Amino acid sequence: MIEYLLSIGFPLIFFILLGEKWEIPRVCTIAWSILMGFLSFLIWYKLTSLYFNEAFVPRVMIPWVITVIFTALVLAWRFFRDPERIPPEGDNNIISPADGHVIYIKKINEGEFPFVTKHNRTIPIADFISHQGFLSRGVQIGISMNFLDVHVNRCPISGVVDTVKRVTGRFSSLKNIESLLENERVFTIINGHGVKVGIVQIASRLVRRIVYYLQEGDTCKVGQRMGMIRFGSQVDLLIPDTQGLLIQIKIGQVVRAGVTVIASH
């Protein structure tokens, strides 16, 4: 009875806690935990019937190890997917640069970083992007990616790459808003027809590499692959104040890189 409970209890508890830590949707986490608990029990039952006299620990541990390895393989497959995407038609659309869910939509005024920081100290947006004069008024949209999302980032508009700049930094959890200013990131500006946008690829605690494919002076197409962030991370989209700009997403919405219309102008 104890072995039975251990065989299904570990996957249920372990994967639910891991899913919460990695901010994977709870429905997916619970469903996967139940599936892995059932798989673990089947493996334990088979081992018990074939090797009943074997030691207690191997009979319990082997199902755990198999379910963890199987989960790691599935996560790797999900993470390294790179599906083809067809952007929606419309020259005035600004498309999502990343898969994930929208965690904030902030207005930028007077060139200030749109978040309250320690001691109510205002921060220039230039400190975040390490670039002077990009925008003084506009919108900053944060898109959070978890392990289940596609991590290939795409160009939100067609145009010419004006700037690509890596900002070295730490690899802290992005749950702390101050990590946006401290973590390693890559800032890209794309000049399009009638609008320009900034894309900030931000490393998180589990990220150790931001890969970017574009170079300054390159011509790019909307939906074209522009880079990839390894494992959980975040991408911010910066849109300077533009006449007729209309934000078409809301906080909490799930977006897809190269597909979801973020804004139009």
Describe the structure.
There is one protein chain. The chain has 265 residues and is α+β, with helices and mostly antiparallel strands. It has 2 domains: 2-79, no CATH class; 93-264, Distorted Sandwich (Glucose Permease (Domain IIA)), CATH 2.70.70.10. The chain is 29% helix and 27% strand. The protein is built from 5 helices and 14 strands. An 8-stranded antiparallel beta sheet has the order 9-5-6-7-11-3-2-13, with no helix packed on it. Strands 1-14-12 form a 3-stranded antiparallel beta sheet, with no helix packed on it. A hairpin with a 4-residue loop joins strand 6 and strand 7. Helix 1 packs antiparallel against helix 2 and helix 1 runs parallel beside helix 3 (56-79). The chain is elongated and about 70 Å long. The N and C termini lie far apart (64 Å).
- Side-by-side strand order of the widest sheet: 9-5-6-7-11-3-2-13
* Tally of DSSP β-strands: 14
Q: In one word, what is the shape?
A: elongated
CATH class of the largest domain: Mainly Beta
- Percent of residues in β-strands: 25-35%
Number of helices: 5
CATH superfamily of the largest domain: Glucose Permease (Domain IIA)
The low-confidence runs, each spanning 5 or more residues with pLDDT under 50, are none
CATH architecture label of the largest domain: Distorted Sandwich
Coarse structural class:
alpha+beta
**How do the helices and strands follow one another from N- to C-terminus?**
HHHEEHEEEHEEEEEEEEE
CATH fold topology of the largest domain: Glucose Permease (Domain IIA)
Overall pLDDT, averaged? 84
Distance between the termini: 64 Å
Number of domains: 2
Helix content: 25-40%
Mind summarizing the main beta sheet? 8 strands, antiparallel
Radius of gyration: 22 Å
